[in-house]
Amino acid sequence: MSKVSMTVEKNFVRSHVDDRLYSSFIEHLGRAVYSGIYEPDHPLADEQGFRKDVIALVRDLGVSLIRYPGGNFLSGYDWKDGIGPRDSRPRRLDLAWRTIEPNLIGIDEFVDWSKKAGTGIMGAVNMGTGTPKEAGELLEYCNFSGGTYWSDLRKKNGHPEPYGIKTWCVGNEMDGPWQICHLDAVDYGKKARETAKIMKWIDEDIELVACGSATSLMPSYPEWDRIVLEHTYEQVDYLSLHRYYENHGNDRDFLASFVDMDRFIKSVASTVDYVKALKRSSKTVYLSFDEWNVWYQQKQTRFDWEVAPPILEDQYSLLDALVFAGLGITLINNSDRVRIACLAQLVNVIAPIFTKKGGPAIMQSTYWPFRDISRYGRGSVLEPVIKAPTMETVYGDAPVLALAAVHQEDSRELTVFCLNIDETETHQLDLALGSFGDITMISRQELSGKDRHAKNDFSMPDRIIPKSLEPVQGSCPNCSLIIPPLSWNVFRFSYS
Predict the structure, then answer these.
(1) What is the pLDDT of residues 49-87, one digit of tens each?
(2) What value does the CA radius of gyration of the chain take, rounded to a whole number of Å?
(3) So what's the pLDDT on residue 474?
(4) Which among 6, 199, 200, 282 is least surrounded, fewest beta carbons within 10 Å?
(5) CATH class of 2-10+382-495
(6) Which residue in 291, 306, 409, 446 is the catalytic one?
C-alpha cells in the first residue's frame, strides 16, 4: 500500500466554480424527448405530458442549464416548426439521426419543462441550414419583451413574459463532415461572427459560444479553433469543446481518460490565449465543455425513419461510473477556464437517467458521481499540494489517485473528491488540513464494488449505489484515509 499526501490551504484558491459547470444536454435524438421527458400517456405524466418521475430525478441532480435542442439535430432544425398549435406542426425528416421528428415539443414547451425541472436553458441556433437572420428571429421570439412580430407571436402562443435565455451556442460541431451543411473554419468563422453581431444587437446581455473542434481527434484540431477565433474573438465569450471516452479493451487506459481530458482543455486554452495575444485583446474567452461523457460509439445501432427509436442507449457499469468521476474531477480542477460544461446527455441517450416507456425511471451508475460533484462541487476550487505515485497508461503517467478540493465558504465546509484508479491496490491518503483550524469530517461516501462490470437495470435498479461510511471521529486537521481500489470517494468536512 502506497501513500498519497494532499495538503490543502484555505487561501490557495484556483478558481470560483460557475454553477453552469454542472449543466446537461437534451437533444431531439432517440428517446431523450419522447418517452424521456415527455410521455403524455404515462401514469406519472403531468397536465402537459411531462414525466414527473424524470423531473424529480433532474431536480435531484441539481442541473444548472440544459443545452437545447441539439446536437447534430440542430443543423437541420427549423425552430419555427416547433411553435404554435400542435395539430398544425409539420412532421419532418431528421437527416442527422435518420428519424422522424413530430415536433410535439418545441422551445415553448421546453421552457415550461425547464421551469418545472429547476434548470435554466442554454439555447442553440442553427448554423447549418439556418441563417444569421433566423438566429436573430429566434432570439427575438425568446427574449424580446413585446411589440414586434416575433415577440408578439410568443405572447400569442401563450407565453407573455420573455424567456431570458442568456447563454447561446452558435451552431454545433461545424467542422465535422457528418454535420448538415458542414463548413470550413473560415466560412464558419465569418457566419458565426455575423450571427453573433445580430444576436448581441438584439440582446446585449447574452453570452455566446462559438464552435471549437468537434473533438481533439479531428485532423483540423486545433487549427480550426485558431481560425474561428481569429474571426470571432471580440464577438463571442466561449469556445466549445466536445470529447467522449469509451473502453477499447484496456481498463487501465480507460480509467486514465481524465489525463487526456486535462491535456485537451489546456491545449484549447493555449490556442485561445494565442489568439488573444494576436488580437492584442484585453478580453479572455473562456471554454464551454458542452459535450462530455462516456459513450460507446462503436456499439451504435442504426434505425431508419422512426419516431423516437432507442438510439444511443448505453447502459453504464461501475467501471464507466469511475471513469465518469475522473472526468468530473478534471472539470472541477480546470474551472478557471471551463466555465460551462454539459453532460451529454440527460435522459435515455447516453444518460444518467433511463426510462421504460410506460414504466419506471432508474438511475444509471453515472448518476451518482454527477450528483456528488453537482451538490458538493460548488464554491472555491483550492490548489492543493499533492504527492502521489503514478502508473503508465496510453495517455502517459496517471496519478493513482485523482483528487479535487472544493471550499464552500458560506457553510464553512470543505469537500475532497477522490478517485482510485488502481485496479488492485489500496492506497493511503494523508490529508493535511491545518489551515482550516478545528475541522471535523461530517460524512464519508464510497462508490465501489466487486464486479466492475455490474450495471443497474429495471430488475435491479440499485445494484450500483454509493454507500455511507463512518466518518473519522474527532478533529482531523491531519488524517489518514484508506482508499480501496477502483473506488469513488467523497469526504466532507466542517470547520468552526
Answers:
(1) 999 999 999 999 999 999 999 999 999 999 999 999 999
(2) 23
(3) 80
(4) 282
(5) mainly beta
(6) 291
18-376: CATH superfamily: Glycosidases (3.20.20.80)
234 catalytic residue (yes or no): no
* Residue 485 binned pLDDT confidence (cut-offs 50, 70, 90): very high
Q: Do 2-10+382-495 and 18-376 fold alike per CATH?
A: no
Domain coordinates of the chain in residue numbers? 2-10+382-495, 18-376
In this prediction, residues 89-115 reach a mean pLDDT of 98
Is-catalytic flag, 291? yes
Q: Is the pLDDT of residue 1 over 80?
A: no
pLDDT at 473: 86
One of 109, 140, 173, 413 is an active-site residue; which one?
173
